[in-house]
Amino acid sequence: MDTMWDPQAERMSADERAALQARRLDDLLGRLAEGSPLYRERLAGAGVGPGARVGLEGLAGLPFTIKQDLWDNYPWGLLAVPREQVLRVHGSSGTGGRPTLVAYSRADLDVWAQVCARALGCAGAVPGTLVHNGYGYGLFTGGLGMHAGAELMGCTLVPMSGGQTQRQVTMIRDLRPEVLCCTPSYAARLGEALGEAGVARDEISLRVGIFGAEPWSDAMRAQIQDLLPLKALDIYGLSEVIGPGVACECVEAQAGLHVNEDHFLVEVVDPDSGRPLGPGERGELVFTTLTKEAMPLLRYRTGDIAALDPSPCDCGRTLARMSKVAGRRDDMLVIRGVNVYPSEVEAVLVAERAVAPHYLLVVDRTQTLPKLVVACELAAGWSICEETEEAERDRVATEVGAALQARLGLTTEVRVLPGGTIPRVELGKAVRVAERTADHDPLPVWP
After folding, report:
1. How do strand 231-238 and strand 208-211 relate by DSSP bridges?
2. How far apart are the C-alpha atoms of 443 and 423, rounded to whole Å?
3. 298, 263, 335, 323: which is closest to 113 by C-alpha?
4. pLDDT at 327 (0 to 100)
5. Is 287 helix (H, G, I), strand (E, B) or coil?
6. N or C: which end of the chain has fewer CB within 10 A?
7. Binning pLDDT at 50, 70 and 90, where does residue 440 land?
8. CB atoms within 10 A of CB 291
9. Listed residue (304, 327, 299, 274) closest to 69, CA to CA
């Protein structure tokens, strides 16, 4: 059964889509020149005057937008419509306790619901499908975005939000949902909690998961699919662009996230020079919000590192696919001259069956030179008796350390800790990186 929410847009030919994007880009430039003092000045500086028709061929000559622009113009300085036309405000964490706020008009909320419905269609959902939504509700965009998409599609929605894990287990066991929406780290936690509650894998009704809000690897996907009897799909979004629904994997292929290019014009650029990169080249994702009204963004540099594949997918969608996010440009760790993305460490950890899906990377700055300490846990039930657990943890630490050395070219200190040592995050995104200083230990116990 065809579960595409908008087949016309999702199967559009490349030429049709390019023509639509060019028209919408020129319309956007006109709206920005008229309604946004910041963009009016920047476009004039780039030689783009009122009524100019730039088209896709002129995209690379247009100015970038960065997160600092949102902070500098906090809270309403980037509005392109009268404030009275703003129906909702969402936001993400910022510096100094000041969030990055994003405004939505009625039309923006309609577009957001549409692209989230497309994501649910990628998961095979149809009207009546029971959807368990474990994303947080509030300023964070995850919960309300998927909520609106599910209601638009006509799904039966369980708006659980995050946390209250035991209640979530009860609802999954009793209501028997088919689709699970939450962060990948919380999906792993739910898989563990269902097992702890005595719910056997073949008794779990879930068949597809839509997991996002934090980078995660294909190895993490395999581990989640071991814990839960579902296909784990990646969804991508960020509040500055719209929230979840910018792109999503399909259940048929699980081979890249379909970008909704009729609404979000995507580029990949060199993180240092800003030079546009070609298909398959990994760089920084840049988005232009072609149809957003209240707070549209031109060539917004996300900081997320990925690559694009424009080839059609086996599912029939012709939308370009982005790879999983390899990490964030500003999340890259530099340890003794070696560049390390947390996702590279995760790929090694979750490939080791003896390691549980919870970890923390600690940059230890208590000595003259920083070192990377990889803290993880022994998988539940891996050691058969207490007398051998410590020896088993030492053995696993040695194996993981060797694998990290081979992948990263860096010597790390691996600590395989008892189960339950790594702090669990039930609300929001998992904390994967922390610093250890003379005044602060990020773990409850530092063995």
Report:
1. parallel
2. 7
3. 263
4. 79
5. strand
6. N
7. confident
8. 18
9. 299
Whose CA is closest to 232, among 242, 221, 243, 240?
221
In this structure, of 120-134, 294-308, 326-340, 352-366, the range with the lowest mean pLDDT score is 326-340
Long-range contacts of 403-411 (CB under 8 A, 24+ apart): 403/348, 403/351, 403/352, 404/345, 404/348, 404/374, 407/344, 407/347, 407/348, 408/338, 408/340, 408/344, 408/345, 409/338, 410/335, 410/336, 410/338, 410/340, 410/372
Q: What percent of the chain is modeled with pLDDT above 90?
A: 68
Q: Where are the alpha helices (DSSP H) in 4-153?
A: 7-10, 14-35, 37-45, 67-72, 106-122, 141-153
3-state DSSP assignment of residue 376: strand
Quick one: which H or E segment has residue 196? helix 184-196
In the beta sheet, which residues pair with residue 248? 235, 258
Peptide bond preceding 75: is omega within 30 degrees of 0, i.e. cis?
Answer: yes
Helix (H) or strand (E) holding 358: strand 355-364
385 CB neighbour count, 10 Å cutoff: 7
The pLDDT, as a whole number, for residue 96 is 45
Q: Which has more confidence, 91 or 301?
A: 301
The pTM (predicted TM-score) of the whole model is 0.81
Distances (CA, A) of 122 to 3, 187, 245, 324, 333: 7, 19, 11, 16, 34
Query: Rounded to whole angstroms, how far apart are CA atoms 49 and 380?
Result: 63
Mean pLDDT of the chain: 91
Task: Report the distance separating Cα 358 and Cα 422, nearest Å.
Answer: 7
| Euclidean distance between CA atoms 181 and 441, whole angstroms | 32
Q: Show the tokens assigned to 402.
A: 């060797």
